Amino acid sequence: MLNPKTIEIIKSTVPVLEKHGKEITTRFYQMLFEDHPELLNIFNQTNQKTGRQQTALANAVYAAAAYIDKLETIIPVVKQIAHKHRSIGIKPEHYPIVGKYLLLAIEDVVKDVPKEVIEAWGEAYGVIADIFIQTEHEMYVEAAEKEGGWKDYKPFAISRKVKESDLITSIYLKPKDGKPTASFLSGQYISVRVNIPGDEHTHIRQYSLSDAPNGEYYRITIKRESEEKATLGAVSNYLHDQLKEGDSIEISAPAGEFVLDQTTDKPLVLISGGVGVTPLMSMMKVSAKEQPNRDITFIQAARSGRHIALDKEIQEITNGISRKHLICYETPTAEDIEAQSFDKEGYITSQWLNDVISDKAADYYLCGPIPFMKAVYQMLLEIGVQEEAIHYELFGPHEKL
């Protein structure tokens, strides 16, 4: 535990972190990768290029300082980050390296930092690192000891590739050792590790599992990035274009905190934008099978019928009295209009949500692009949905809507 003096010093740095946090974390990553380029094999360089990783770390450091006297309040965030760390392979030996360069970055950006401040942050970082290390150790053990489970990465063969839309493809993965796949909670993801020819460093990406647990295979459903984003979509384009059925990739055991709550039988409302359908698809399948009497409304938004994925699967499951599938196309094609294959044209609106959701006292799960998520989140609040009833998944580093 930290002594009162250390806590006092850390809390006094909150205004500085609020002002210089992004600058500190940007410098931290620069220094870290200059001296330890091997860590580029672990960190997502897309998030580095877009600045999301720097922002996420700055927010985490700020939260740690603000709640240093009440660390129990950030445990939910710790668990979410720990899931990600376990999934990509962060180990205890990485923490002293990160701590060293975080302190160096603080000194480099905030000039003339008193020695006692650096010492206090060093002590605080040690306590926080220990919490992460212990939490992640438990997750590693759980993943390895589960039936069909494993530690770190394991080779899987691509047994099937199915084109779902113009930009989205489902990939079915089976263990190369012939053993059953470990079970998982609907909504969880796996990390995929690939070596792309011509690239110096390994790439790791997280993809939600888009099917229910079955013991035979995992399914991921991924979107190809557009040509202008090709440098930021290296992995998705590689999986789409280069890998074929029979090829193998390495994946880590399922992880993640964004999972379906099956302890309640409240109506379930799933709202997806684009490829955000993937974790919600798994949730729907599990709920339909294990909670057959639970009302389900699945609202699926996409650009058009050429961009929607898994809609036919959803329609088959929602073909019942207590289940409903609604489709919103931003710009429907002539074929969409002729087939009358959608329920709303344009964007989702709060008025439309108010009209189509019959029971507002439901559990809501959202997944999709960040602007979509923010908009739907606010709409739900506007129509009277309680904040604690809204659960969401954001791709990439932890953020809040």
Explained architecture:
The chain folds into 3 domains: 4-145, Globin-like; 153-252, Translation factors (Elongation Factor Tu (Ef-tu), domain 3), CATH 2.40.30; 268-393, Rossmann fold (3-Layer(aba) Sandwich), CATH 3.40.50. It is 42% helix and 18% strand. It has 13 helices and 12 strands. The protein has helices at residues 4-12, 14-35, 45-50, 52-66, 75-88, 94-109, 115-145, 234-241, 277-290, 311-317, 334-339, 350-356, 370-382, and strands at 153-163, 168-175, 189-194, 203-208, 218-223, 248-252, 268-273, 296-302, 323-329, 344-345, 363-367, 390-393. The strands form 2 sheets. Strands 4-3-6-1-2-5 form a 6-stranded antiparallel sheet, covered by helices on one side. The protein has a 6-stranded parallel sheet with strand order 10-9-8-7-11-12, with helices on both faces. Helix 2 crosses helix 6 (94-109) and helix 12 crosses helix 13 (370-382). The chain is globular and about 70 Å long.
- Overall structural class, as computed from helix and strand content, comes to alpha/beta
Number of extended strands: 12
Helix content: 40-55%
Strand order of the largest sheet: 4-3-6-1-2-5
Hey, roughly how much beta strand do the residues contain? 15-25%
Q: Terminal Cα separation, in Å?
A: 32 Å
CATH 2nd-level architecture of the largest domain: Orthogonal Bundle
The CATH H-level homologous superfamily of the largest domain: Globins
Specify the CATH class of the largest domain. Answer: Mainly Alpha
- Uncertain stretches: none
What's the structural domain tally?
Answer: 3
Reported by name, the CATH topology of the largest domain is Globin-like
Radius of gyration equals 22 Å
- Output mean pLDDT: 91
How large is the count of helical segments?
13
Shape type:
globular
Binding site for FAD: 189, 205-208, 394-397
Domain FAD-binding FR-type: 151-261
Domain Globin: 1-137
Catalytic activity: 2 nitric oxide + NADH + 2 O2 = 2 nitrate + NAD(+) + H(+); 2 nitric oxide + NADPH + 2 O2 = 2 nitrate + NADP(+) + H(+)
